[in-house]
Amino acid sequence: MVRLPCPLLLLLPLLRVSAATPEPCQIDDEDVRCVCNFTHPQPDWSSALQCMAAVEVEIRGGGRSLEEFLLKSASANPKQYADMLKALRLRRLTVGAARSPAQILALVLHALGFSRLKELTLEDLEVTGQVPPPLQETPGLALTTFRLRNVSWATGGAWLGELQQWLQPSLKVLKVAQASSLAFPCAQLRAFPALTTLDLSDNPGLGERGLTAALCPRKFPALEDLALRNAGMETPSGVCAALAGAGVQPHRLDLSHNSLRATAAGARECVWPAALSSLNLSFAELEQVPKGLPPKLTVLDLSCNKLNRAPRPEELPAVDDLTLEGNPYMDPEALQHQEDPMASGVVPPCARSALTMGVSGTLALLQGARGFA
Ligand SMILES: *[C@@H]1O[C@H](CO)[C@@H](O)[C@H](O)[C@H]1NC(C)=O
Ligand SMILES: *[C@@H]1O[C@H](CO)[C@@H](O)[C@H](O)[C@H]1NC(C)=O
Ligand SMILES: *[C@@H]1O[C@H](CO)[C@@H](O)[C@H](O)[C@H]1NC(C)=O
User: Which GO annotations describe the biological process of this protein (predicted)?
Assistant: First the structure.
């Protein structure tokens, strides 16, 4: 049996090297980026050793279940490798395409707590069971950026509170896309004192009610950027109400790529955060400027909507930097391009972004097709 210091290899103490399997890990010539894709039924786990020199590591489990490592990892204590973990150059780690018992995830987080990892991404992961709280001796991950995409949790919205216990309060950026639950039980959540960016984009089922449940009052005191692209938002005033309810004060709000309505039936006047200076309403299918916008903004992006006439001054907030490109009244072909980006050989600005969304949609489908082995 070989003992290895690489945090993920701690979980895999039994290394079987089979000559027939292709090399699952590849490191680039500069020793910066290492990518592992363990799709083979009996992969050569030791291939991951070469990633020890890398700054950026990406590990995909080919959709396998990590259940089999549960017993083998029971006696693993990452603390005994603390010095070696600290010496790793690893700063960015992506782990994905696996089904993992929560204890295994906790062991990885424990090990990574000794490293100098800054950015962690979890992708296409199904976590079973409840993530146990850390032991006393765990320093906690000093992450600046934490991204989760398509991660499902057995414990519903409690996942954020469970993971937070493993983190130092240094987190600046939290991005959660395709989430299974964003309804956080607020009482179990501590504040994120350094968090400036919260990105809940690509959660089309979220909606304004979901946003209200996600934005726990007083937990995001430093928030500056709130991104809600493609998040099922319906009206700017509904979003305003959710922000007011949570008392969050973002400086920049991105509501692009939502299908927004210009007026909310029976909406009450809502007071926008005083700090809000930038509002992005592009790609929002707006046929007119929505009511209830903040009275004053530095930046307002209304590009790539369906405005059929120039907005009247009284419809707009006082704004320094207004973008109206890609609306049909300015460019009669814009609408056609938004609906059919391939229609002509020339790619106008709105079509390009719609096209990018289309491409990422295709990627999501391809990833979806990968499934569990
Ligand atoms: C991993 O390997 C599988 C099969 O070889 C392939 O379909 C998949 O695209 C790979 N994933 C990545 C992220 O390279
Ligand atoms: C608004 O959002 C769109 C699409 O998400 C993006 O392309 C554009 O750069 C954003 N505008 C500003 C001012 O940030
Ligand atoms: C989401 O992750 C699961 C694994 O937990 C996977 O089976 C599914 O295909 C992923 N979906 C997408 C859209 O990538």
Answer: cellular response to lipopolysaccharide; inflammatory response; innate immune response; positive regulation of cytokine production
Q: Is 299 in the pocket of ligand 2 (CB under 6 A)?
A: yes
pLDDT at 154: 93
CB contact at 8 A, 91 and 32 = no
Q: Determine contact, residues 171/142, Cβ cutoff 8 Å.
A: no
Q: Which tokens hold the place of 291?
A: 């009511």
Q: Is 60 in the pocket of ligand 1 (CB under 6 A)?
A: yes
CATH number of the domain residue 311 falls in: 3.80.10.10
Residue 186 lies in a domain: no
The preferred substitution site among 23, 36, 37, 64 for testing ligand 1, maximizing ligand atoms within 8 Å of CB, is 37
pLDDT computed for residue 72 by the predictor: 76
Q: Is the beta carbon of 283 within 6 A of some atom in ligand 2?
A: yes
pLDDT at 134 over 80: yes
Q: Is the CB of 322 under 6 A from ligand 2?
A: no
The count of C-alpha atoms lying within 13 angstroms of the C-alpha of 215, restricted to the half-sphere facing its C-beta, is: 29
Protein residue with its CA nearest to atom 13 in ligand 2: 301
Atom of ligand 3 nearest to the CA of 371: 7
Model pLDDT, residue 21: 56
pLDDT, the chain, mean: 86
Number of domains in the chain: 1
Decide: 124 in ligand 3 pocket, CB within 6 A: yes
Which range marks the domain in which residue 349 is found?
Answer: 196-358
Would the pLDDT of 92 be above 70? yes
In a domain, 336, yes or no: yes
In a domain, 318, yes or no: yes
CB of 364 within 6 A of ligand 3: the answer is: yes
**Measured between alpha carbons, how far is residue 288 from residues 94, 236, 332, 339 in Å?**
42, 13, 16, 18
pLDDT at 73 over 80: no
Contact (CB, 8 A) for 190 and 171: no
Q: pTM, whole model, 2 decimals?
A: 0.87
353 lines ligand 2 (CB under 6 A): yes
pLDDT over 50 (residue 3): no
Span 232-254, mean pLDDT?
95
Alpha-carbon distance 75 to 230, whole Å? 44
pLDDT at 346: 56
Nearest CA to ligand 2 atom 7: 353
